[in-house]
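Researcher: Structure for this, please.
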Amino acid sequence: MTASASRGNDGRVREFGLAPLPAGQRRGEAPHGEGPGGPPIAWRGPPSGPQPGGEGASAPPAHRPLRTRPWWPWARRGAVLVFLLLVAVLLVQQARAVEWAEVFTAMRAYPWAVLAAAAALAALSHGIYATFDLIGRHYTGHRLPAATVMAITFVSYAFNLNMGTIVGAVGMRARLYTRLGLKAATVTRIVGTSMLTNWLGYCLLAGLAFAAWPPVLPEGWHLGGLALRAVGAGMVGLVLAYGAMCAFSTRREFHVRGHAIDLPGWRVALLQLLLSCSNWAVMGAAMFVLLQGQVPYPLALGVLLIGAVAGLLSRVPAGLGVLESVVVALLMGTQGSPSRNALLAAVLCYRAVYYWIPLGVAAVLYLGMEANARKLRAGAAAQAPAADARGRRP
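Model: Predicted structure, token format:
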């Protein structure tokens, strides 16, 4: 077998040759076990010198991430400024939409002991909800301190109640968590876990309330008692199906639009149900206290649950006017129910202790977290190695 040579454009001689063929194989035939497309020629090495495309040609540069672009810091600051302005505008609109004279008149008519009990129950409910993101912390494995996570959850929940899901549940969490160093994918999983936790408890309690103690619906709602019982049974069935999947499913990972979703174990699912049911039950207790026992607790809870979904579907911030309409429509005229004015006063006081006072606290807390974000982020980064060390300890 001889090697041939060729002279390139630069005058250098390049040698190349053909690898020897196995015994019994002819030139042009595929090796044993390969198809006709198998390469019969084995090169000793690529020719040296410039490659096609020009001397010194290289692969096209990789796509530059947005964070490396010179305009990115200014765009990020602009987006933050727009978000803060949006929050400020919504706060002002929310304050102007409230008839404060009516609120103060209704609150003055209530015994202070009743208002104090309702405010304590509202604070307990917000505290329970603040633990929802701790489940997301366990689920994603991030290392932010538990107190910081609960503060972010409280802020997002208060804004969510008054300004809607986009600003509160999603916007506030995205802003504060990413400010503290979490990635967008992690924040998405936290938000999804918290929302799932919240609505699991709702479905279970609402399903039981609708199936066992269905309120009498107005004629214009086109939904009878039997249909409401069926809806309640279906909601309970969904919760039981979720619990069964978490306990017995052999498939633990699902993919939705490119996102991997890990199915939690039955202990986590049980914890989700306990926390969420406790939260909704305490919310119903606050309304029951403000109605001063004139309506049975299951009925007060069921009306509140219907009002929560009606406010969500109405897309009105804080469901202003929606909860009032639902409470009056479902309780007015029932045996032992208060008058229309008394029902409206109860709803206004409920909004005051559960919506507006927590919103004021959350606004101050949010400004403090924005001002101390770097310090909080540094503290979280300092605690991460210690947490990792504890996790590796036998």
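Researcher: Any notable elements?
Model: The beta strands are 4-7, 13-16, 253-256, 259-262. The first strand starts at residue 4 and ends at 7.
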